[in-house]
Amino acid sequence: MLALASWRSLAALLALACVFGAPYRLDAQATTKAPGSFDFDADGIVFQTADTSNRVIMRFRIQNHATTRSTSLDDLDIGSTEWMVRRLRLRFGGHLADRRLTFNLQLSFTRSDQDFSDTQFPNIVRDAMVFWNFTPDLQIGFGQTKLPGNRQRVISSGDLQIGERSIVNNAFNLDRDFGFQGHWRVRVEDVIVNLRGALSTGDGRNQSRIAGDGLAWTGRVEVLPFGAFLNGGDYFEGDLMREPTPKLSVGATIHDNQGHTRTRGQLGVRLFEPRSSSLLYLDAIAKWQGAAVYAEYARRTGADPITRSSDGRTAAVLVGSGWMAQASYITPADVEVAARVANVTPDDVLTGIADGVEQTDYSAAVTYYLRRHRVKAGLEVGQEHRRTLGTENVAKNWLLRANLEFGI
Length: 408
What we know:
Elements: H1 2-31, E1 37-41, E2 44-48, E3 55-72, E4 77-95, E5 101-108, H2 116-119, E6 125-135, E7 138-146, H3 151-154, H4 167-172, E8 176-188, E9 191-200, E10 216-224, E11 247-262, E12 270-288, E13 291-301, E14 306-308, E15 314-316, E16 320-330, E17 335-346, E18 357-371, E19 375-388, E20 394-407
Antiparallel strand pairs: 1-2, 2-3, 3-4, 3-20, 4-5, 5-6, 6-7, 7-8, 8-9, 9-10, 10-11, 11-12, 12-13, 13-16, 14-15, 16-17, 17-18, 18-19, 19-20
């Protein structure tokens, strides 16, 4: 009898569950959100909610270098070898909560890509920037990313024709910094004018608190007299799109950095005292039917650039000038030939200082594009000339570099 009562009680509970549970299940089904999407397309790996209010794009890239330097081609005397993963990047972008609220996040995972030799700690975070897009032609941003400096620096290292940027970029580029940035694009018929500005710390990425109130401001203007390049081609090297009509972009950057603590502003080793400097950058890029030409000029000035420690060591702001020119042609078979010449000349005030070396580089490269700049393989041959200021002795090195780029 007790068992029968127990079974009857259980049946009653199940009946109640069916009566009261059915509406709950129907309600739950009615409020279930539609699933988001996951896709892999030309943008990268795309995660998106069903209502498209949140969209995250993930990309990665691997850049492998095998570089060998030789002092002579006669006896193949190998001076040095650098065979390594030059860059390994993970990048995220998209919008969250509102399509006008976008972001850019980029991380690096190799020692050579983390500014380790100058800072002695791994700078993993490269970009951490949030933008508000008022219109497609007007945006402001806050966070850490590249300053609007020379074009070759702003161009991704994965979109270069030759495995590394030029020595002019190495000496004078503005790199990344933390602060505020703005961009405004003005269109007058076919002419496009890009205006960019930034207010930043002046001391580079991932810096701890720095004494004083020295900041840096940067202004850049670009003029595209013949209209926009195909697929944003003014910000990748080589005419991979084979522009059907001539395209040209001319840019100028002015940068003033007050009380910076590193020899090249946002980069370099620590100065023993803060210094201020100014930088002018001029650059131009032109493309037409597979041919491309790019050139730039840089000039950094600063009062009293040399700092000294109490024990007599020196560290100096790299004042001086530099110029670079490169040209290329890509065939219908997606094989490109490119050549570059670059020069950096420090001011005479740096004579006797470690940075007081005039540099001239000559490079030639052949690249095969499997998937434009995302998947490509290249071979570079070059010669490096180094002359210490105050002397006539020139040291020469031959360079041979194999470059493989693989990513999405």
